[in-house]
Write a structure and sequence with these properties.
two-stranded antiparallel sheet; Rossmann fold; about 200 residues; about 15% strand; elongated; 6 helices; 3-stranded mixed sheet; alpha/beta
């Protein structure tokens, strides 16, 4: 890596600083991914200028040279390029003394080892995808396309989950809720009728 060129990037904080804070991100970094932290710290450091330098060289496999992104299918059909900002996740636990790896490492490794090209999962994991995209680049793993669908919630807005002993899909069906109605509730009405034809178009 050549350090001949001066480092530069987005800034936050005081316009007449007496202190300088430099946020170092990593190889191939886009300073915009980290400068949001600087804006949060600005109130605590009123006399500081906060700089998040862009990396001098792009990170291989990172779209746009330094900015991370992933392909997100909105509504299951319209593809958009979703910018990934790993810093929004904060400090991620990647392993613990009692567990060799975390969900985050395991899921990106499993997707790659199984050749997964399309991931459909609940919107409660949307924010985790920012981190997963970074791990894919650091581990030199391929990036699948994603669709994060709405999740089923109860009357209070709480996500239905087994850990909370929420009502199961089987129980909904036994109560007369149709398959079509359930798909509509999670934002996938196009798969209710002619599922194979819809999947073929996708």
């Amino acid at each position: 890596m050549s350090m001949g060129a001066p480092l530069d990037g987005p800034r936050a904080g005081s316009a007449k600083p007496r202190q300088l804070v430099v946020l170092l991100h990593g190889f191939g970094a886009d300073g915009r991914d980290l400068v949001s932290l600087g804006r949060q710290w600005a109130e605590l450091l009123p006399d500081a200028a906060i700089v998040a330098p862009n990396a001098p060289e792009p990170c291989p496999g990172s779209p746009g040279g330094g900015a991370l992104s992933w392909g997100e299918f909105r509504g299951g059909a319209v593809r958009v390029e979703q910018r990934a900002t790993p810093a929004v996740w904060g400090d991620a636990v990647l392993s613990r003394r009692d567990i060799a790896t975390s969900y985050h490492v395991a899921v990106v490794a499993d997707d790659a080892s199984q050749g997964i090209t399309d991931v459909v999962r609940g919107e409660d994991l949307f924010m985790a995808t920012h981190l997963h995209r970074l791990l894919q680049v650091l581990l030199e793993l391929p990036a699948p396309e994603y669709h994060h669908h709405p999740v089923l919630r109860d009357g209070a807005g709480q996500k239905l989950s087994k850990s909370l002993r929420a009502k199961s899909l089987r129980a909904f069906r036994q109560d007369g809720v149709s398959r079509e109605a359930m798909l509509a509730r999670i934002g996938l009405p196009q798969f209710a009728a002619g599922s194979q034809a819809a999947l073929a178009k996708r």
